[in-house]
């Protein structure tokens, strides 16, 4: 294949070019495709039935046919996803687009004589058009995946791993198996003496002794680091390894030490370490995306919890946390749980959602928002977002709800996500849901402290879910909350969250429940965090305003908008980067920040692009055992795909200093056209 002849750098440039000019390239590709299939049809029929007529007919009718075809494919959203996925829904949309444009072409010929074509021409061209349009998607996806694979290899820097063979083996396997790892081991140096063969390899990476690696020094000129994998070693042991490998003239780094892991200053070896630069004792301090920020009161609440001896998933701290949460949000009934995902799962259970049902959800969200739908055996219908708020598009929801009603199969719930601290338009969503009697369950995991028309995020809906994960605006290290104005709803969830134990002296269960309650210790942390919620929101908004002031005037940089109906908590500051204007794409900026020990992440990858879901136009059952994939539908998708392609989440931790912000901004400006030095 063509891509196998390219080097990795060329693949990187080609992928950037495709991403930059994706829409225009797709339009041109489809125009050539339609023209080619029409020409092929006419040539074939010219030979069989209509000698001498093909050329004149082609020249006379091509332009109107192309306009109709391109417009119909545009209407059916068949351009944006060309390189990304191929689904059954695509095939149905291709069929619809081809049929509609062909009918339009025939009708045009009926009212305008020069455009008239024989019916056999129109029919055969429609069939060729369908086959070619679907075929190009299969080819384009395969081509883009291979180009992307080669491009990612170009971005991955080479390293040498040094340390005891057993430990280094696991670390290398993590890196090599993860296509998103930033570093690629090219050699393993065994410092334990366990190497038994001169031909030993691990995952195709050669295992070498110290003497062997020194003798091959010239082969490792492009290596970025020698990573010493001795997280529990003494300084003396580290110095020994460094001294042995010093002749390589390659910078040394280490994975974090055990005390750093305990204090939260380091990252554990394995998956997370494989995604970040190895620790350099002389490097700049790590700036994390959204680390926990303790108020200073947490230890006092934990001390009280220990004194009470309620070291369990129940207790006075849990009761107090639920009570104060309700006071802070204005939602009268709350249930503290082990995670936000657990809260969504319980909401699905209380609503009686099961196999054969559908649930409408946001496609631009975190996977934990939608996995409970699959836990229940239901089928998700993913709805695209709008550009005003980046949350679920009410107009698309309305169209989908009407379609479901016409088919006699309404969804059991609508589950929109409040994204990056911004509320959905609850009023418009409820105006769609209420007439059909469909409950609106809001995933407000990212929106604690945000407001919608003067009320706290999630208020005024059937139920709302919140998360207190370590990266959220307030945290309990891990935990969630289910809140509702419906007391019976919350009490039923409470019953299920405690193993569904019936109210009798012995342990009796008439239903299957879950162990989803929050620990009394973690609730104590939550009580302390609630007291600084407004301070955290204010600081997050200050950070957003600082980024916008320092970067907002740069060409090709846009910030996530704030909808006019509410106040975002600005959990994360998110920018969109248009590479042809800025001079670099999102991934180049992210890698530049990572090189400076600054964590940034792409916008959530839309759910309809996740490999775990198999898209269908109509989903009647979940075939979860088939290749581990779940059926789903998607409505729209172009907006969320664009946000994912261009969006970058910047560090937004409330403990960041002004110097941290200036450091981040400086790196971003250096990535742009001519450095944007001023």
Task: Describe the fold and architecture.
With 678 residues, this protein is an alpha/beta fold. It has four domains: 2-153, no CATH class; 156-274, Rossmann fold; 298-530, Aspartate Aminotransferase, domain 2; 533-676, Aspartate Aminotransferase, domain 1, CATH 3.90.1150. Helices cover 45% and strands 13% of the residues. It is built from 23 helices and 22 strands. The strands form five sheets. The chain has a six-stranded mixed sheet with strand order 3-4-2-1-5-6. A five-stranded parallel sheet has the order 10-8-9-21-20, covered by helices on one side. Helix 15 (394-406) runs parallel beside helix 16. The model is unreliable at 1-6, 256-282 and 617-626 (pLDDT under 50).
The backbone outline, from C-alpha atoms, is globular
Major sheet: arrangement of strands: 3-4-2-1-5-6
Count of DSSP E strands?
22
Q: Mind telling me which CATH architecture of the largest domain this is? A: 3-Layer(aba) Sandwich
* Radius of gyration from the alpha-carbon trace, in angstroms: 29 Å
Beta-strand proportion: 5-15%
Q: Tally the helices.
A: 23
| Tally of individual domains | 4
Concise synopsis of the structure shown:
This protein is an alpha/beta fold and 678 residues long. α8 links the parallel β5 (225-228) and β6 (252-254). α2 packs antiparallel against α3 (54-75) and α13 crosses α17 (487-497).
């Amino acid at each position: 294949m063509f891509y196998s002849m390219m080097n990795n750098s060329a693949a990187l440039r080609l992928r950037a070019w495709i991403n930059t000019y994706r829409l225009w390239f797709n339009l041109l590709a489809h125009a050539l495709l339609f023209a080619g299939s029409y020409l092929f049809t006419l040539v074939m029929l010219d030979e069989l039935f209509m000698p001498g007529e093909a050329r004149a007919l082609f020249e006379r009718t091509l332009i109107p046919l192309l306009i109709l075809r391109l417009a119909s494919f545009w209407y059916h959203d068949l351009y944006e996803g060309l390189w990304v996925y191929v689904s059954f829904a695509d095939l149905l949309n291709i069929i619809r687009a081809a049929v509609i444009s062909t009918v339009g072409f025939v009708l045009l010929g009926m009212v305008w004589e020069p455009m008239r074509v024989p019916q056999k021409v129109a029919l055969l061209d429609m069939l060729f058009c369908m086959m070619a349009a679907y075929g190009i998607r299969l080819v384009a996806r395969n081509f883009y995946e291979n180009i992307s694979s080669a491009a990612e290899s170009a971005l991955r820097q080479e390293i040498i791993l040094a340390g005891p063979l057993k430990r280094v083996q696991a670390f290398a396997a993590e890196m090599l198996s993860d296509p998103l790892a930033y570093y690629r081991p090219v050699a393993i140096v065994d410092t334990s003496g366990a190497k038994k063969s001169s031909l030993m390899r691990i995952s195709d990476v050669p295992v070498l002794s110290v003497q062997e690696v020194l003798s091959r020094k010239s082969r490792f000129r492009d290596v970025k680091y020698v990573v010493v994998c001795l997280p529990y070693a003494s300084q003396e042991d580290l110095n020994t390894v460094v001294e042995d490998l010093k002749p390589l003239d390659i910078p040394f780094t280490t994975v974090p030490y055990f005390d750093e892991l305990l204090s939260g200053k380091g990252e554990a070896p394995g998956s997370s370490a494989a995604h970040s630069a190895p620790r350099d004792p002389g490097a700049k301090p790590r700036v994390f995306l959204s680390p926990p920020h303790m108020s200073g009161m947490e230890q006092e609440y934990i001390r009280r919890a220990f004194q009470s001896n309620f070291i369990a998933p129940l207790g006075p701290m849990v009761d107090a946390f639920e009570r104060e949460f309700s006071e802070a949000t204005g939602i009268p009934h709350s249930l503290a749980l082990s995670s936000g995902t657990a809260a969504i799962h319980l909401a699905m259970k209380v609503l009686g959602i099961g196999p054969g049902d559908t649930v409408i959800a946001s496609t631009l969200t975190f996977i934990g928002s939608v996995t409970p739908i699959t836990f229940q055996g239901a089928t998700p219908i993913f709805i695209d977002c709008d550009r005003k708020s980046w949350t679920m598009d009410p107009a698309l929801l309305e169209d989908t709800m009407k379609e479901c009603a016409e088919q006699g199969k309404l969804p059991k719930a609508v589950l929109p996500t409040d994204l990056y601290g911004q509320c959905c338009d609850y009023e418009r969503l409820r105006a769609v849901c209420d007439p059909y009697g469909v409950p609106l369950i809001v995933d407000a995991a990212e929106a604690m402290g945000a407001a919608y028309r003067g009320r706290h995020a999630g208020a005024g809906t059937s139920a709302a879910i919140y998360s207190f994960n370590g990266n959220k605006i307030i945290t309990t290290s891990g935990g969630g909350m289910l809140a509702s104005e419906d007391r019976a709803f919350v009490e039923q969830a409470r019953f299920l969250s405690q193993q569904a134990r019936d109210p009798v002296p012995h342990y009796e269960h008439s239903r299957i429940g879950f162990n989803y309650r929050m620990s009394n210790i973690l609730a104590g942390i939550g009580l302390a965090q609630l007291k600084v919620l407004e301070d955290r929101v204010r600081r997050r908004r200050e950070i957003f305003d600082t980024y916008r002031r320092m970067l907002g005037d740069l060409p090709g940089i846009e910030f996530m908008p704030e909808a006019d109906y509410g106040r975002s908590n600005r959990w994360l500051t998110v920018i969109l980067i248009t590479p042809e204007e800025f001079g670099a794409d999102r991934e180049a900026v992210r890698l530049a920040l990572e090189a400076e020990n600054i964590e940034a992440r792409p916008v959530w990858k839309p759910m309809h692009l996740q490999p775990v879901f198999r898209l269908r136009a109509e989903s009647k059952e979940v075939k979860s055992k088939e290749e581990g994939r779940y059926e789903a539908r998607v409505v729209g998708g172009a907006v969320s795909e664009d946000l994912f392609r261009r969006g970058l989440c910047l560090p937004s931790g409330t403990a960041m200093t002004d110097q941290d912000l200036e450091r981040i901004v400086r790196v971003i400006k250096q990535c742009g056209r001519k450095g944007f030095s001023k």
